[in-house]
Specification:
The complex is a heterodimer of chains A (113) and B (109). Chain A contains no helices and 11 strands. By secondary structure, chain A is an all-beta fold. Chain B is mostly beta strands. In chain B, the strands form 2 sheets. In chain B, strands 2, 4, 5, 6, 9, 10 and 11 form a 7-stranded mixed β-sheet that branches. Chain B has a 4-stranded antiparallel β-sheet with strand order 1-3-8-7, with no helix packed on it. Chain B starts with a strand and ends with a strand. Classes of the chains: A mainly beta (113), B mainly beta (109). Chains A and B meet through strand 5 of A and strand 5 and strand 10 of B.
Amino acid sequence: RKEVEQDPGPFNVPEGATVAFNCTYSNSASQSFFWYRQDCRKEPKLLMSVYSSGNEDGRFTAQLNRASQYISLLIRDSKLSDSATYLCVVNTQSSGSARQLTFGSGTQLTVLP
Amino acid sequence: NAGVTQTPKFRVLKTGQSMTLLCAQDMNHEYMYWYRQDPGMGLRLIHYSVGEGTTAKGEVPDGYNVSRLKKQNFLLGLESAAPSQTSVYFCASGNREQYFGPGTRLTVT
């Protein structure tokens, strides 16, 4: 089983739609959680951190369920510019080591006009 | 503020050749990382550093070496390139969240 699993998609949605991505992680000791976005042939960029109480940043809402080891990202009112691959990222800090991130393979989103 | 920069952006090597990828960051981060990204595999950690003068192995370290002589720089070396090392290489830095450089596209023929 992969440490971080995501539905690869692709998700094709019309502009203005609401879309949700899910992610599960296998290591219950995971401590920090993030969503990154990656545009085609570009580097991953931090979209938002995910906090236990859930958090929102404009049209983006992230939620964490530690009991189910599940993370979600909700995008409301999709824009064409939201088209990208969304990476679920989990930090499991091993003793004495750096803050290693484990990346999901990503979910591809295309927002259609 | 340049953030994280990488050189070169593109490179084509023949099998057996060597090269060094340079990563520089201006955010005063202690932690720096090298990843490779292959289709369907996601990002995989090659090596990382927790500070100047330190390095450690990640998930896929074989065939690569690294050095961190200065806090702001992290070098990734391929001593004898193989076709299996054809990939996109990303450097990142960060003490919690990680910030990525633009990547180096390497092809080994």
